[in-house]
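Sequence in, structure out. Go.
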Amino acid sequence: MNYRIEKKEAFRIIGVSAPLHKDIEKNFETVPQMWGNAVTDGTLERIAAMMNTDIKGVLGVSRCGELENWSYYIAVASTHAIEDNLEEYMVPACTWAIFSGSGTNVDM
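Output:
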């Protein structure tokens, strides 16, 4: 498994989110459905065009605070204004484990 550890300053993401379930197994259905919807409804292409920072790529971000307030985002790091049906989240500064991903699950 390839990964790297990096310290990053706070950054802003924009995209779409959905609440994560307390029952972790349900998230294995919710998250893939989100990605499928983002591809078919044009959201993925739309947010990818808004990427404009040094943090590149479409991100899958889990925001975990209190147990009742977990969310999953499909987003990009951006300074663009928020468009309709998109959300923003400010990712706090911290140390990250960064993993790369690849695959053939989605045709674009």
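Check: The chain has a mean pLDDT of 89. The longest helix spans residues 24-40.
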